[in-house]
Fold:
Amino acid sequence: MNILKITNFNKYFQNIILTVVLLSLSLIPWIEFINSNFNELDFIFNDNLVILLSLYFLLIFSIYFILKNFLSLKEYSLIAFILISIWTLFQHNFLNNKAKVFFQNINMSHEYSSEIALIIILLFVYLFFKLIQKKKIYTIFFLFFLTFNLFFSIAQFSKEFFSQEKNDYIKENKVSLIKNVKRPNIYFFILDAMMPLNEFKDFYQKDLAKFENFYNQKKYIYFNDTLNFYPYTQDVLTSLFFLDKIYVKDDNYEADNLKENIYQRFPKLLSKKYNPVLISELNKLGYEFKWIGNSFAGCSRYNYRYCISDKKEEYIDLYLLQAFLKKSPLLQIFNKITEQNIIQKYLKINQRGDAIGKLKKFLISNKEYIETKSTFYFIHHMHPHWPYKHDEQCNYKYFPGNTNFEGYKNSYLCVIKNITSIMEIIDKLDKDAMVIFQSDHSWEMSRISEAKYGNRRQIFSLIKNNIQCETSIPEGLNNVQVTNYLIKCLKNNY
Structure:
């Protein structure tokens, strides 16, 4: 009886160890993913991440129990095989990029680099399986390799986490309001990847006189030759919330070239524990800050306090899931088998990129709020940025690829329609408001050739200024400059 008890205890203890090994080492792809996106996404205490990890662990266990019945491997060897296969699978994006560079260097097409990367992975997996079958030492070696990888990934995460904690601008600063009076509401629209109006007209030979007449009647001014400080969304919006340039050297966009006072970058700087310069200045002037985001960066993921609604938009963060799966070939394979992009299909339904549409609904149903509160609305509209999924009338129509000229044209014209619509609503419900429509950077084609497709830093800029100031708004002010101008005007007049 005692022997039986000891045997059962040993088996129970062994199962616990196997479970811990399986769960902990299967986390490596997630930790690597978090490390590579540390400054973009707020993963800490993220309930979306908890849900995704739960589903991920469920999948891992399912794979384990299925393979247990089909492969003649001892439990430790089976677990080692599953773990090393998963780890290798999530190196696909890395191998794909390396293959592209290789083929480019030898002047060959990299059209099939993704397939070649997948073949390499499958060969590795087959080799692992054969080695594990032969000798126990290989199982030990692979488990040791993964354990080392896990500790290395955790160490990297810890370094990032604790270094950013030292530079926190921590929490809410107590601010003294200038005067507790109603100030004009401010609507700041970021139209992602919207090229300048004149460049669009010239490239597509499109007459936009109707739109131009419309915004002139509404007393908006379009500003040509407006250049942002940087060509990338994260850098542009980080500088906006710091009200200043963020790099020591303008031509060096590396993390080690950031100014010392840059404690965090967009969108993570909008998390609960930070208080960016822009929001602090607005608070001093008696403004509330409201943020309407998108699938890339939404307020519910970072700070409910800034949301125009406290309702959670979705239980599973599809942007997070898609970004993670892109490290492996799984999403590509599934999309090819089903002949559709399942995530894009869902995003078509919930339209999380339509920040302007969300603002419309809020304004129409909250008239008293906009009349009594002084609010700065930051609206990050994820169009005309790819994926292109609208025709010019804003009906769903998917255009594949990030450099699809027809797709961009339709998406751009849809945004023009969105702008016209929201102008009408603001003019009707909040006619004294300050309204800014600007892009963060130009279209995706500028990545291919700026000489051919225009300066990536050149932006769309359409502004209605209802705030009294000593001087009229100067020509060509970018995101940061126009916001500084605005705050200066408010300080002088209120």
Q: What stands out?
A: The two ends are 86 Å apart (CA to CA). The first helix runs from residue 2 to 25.
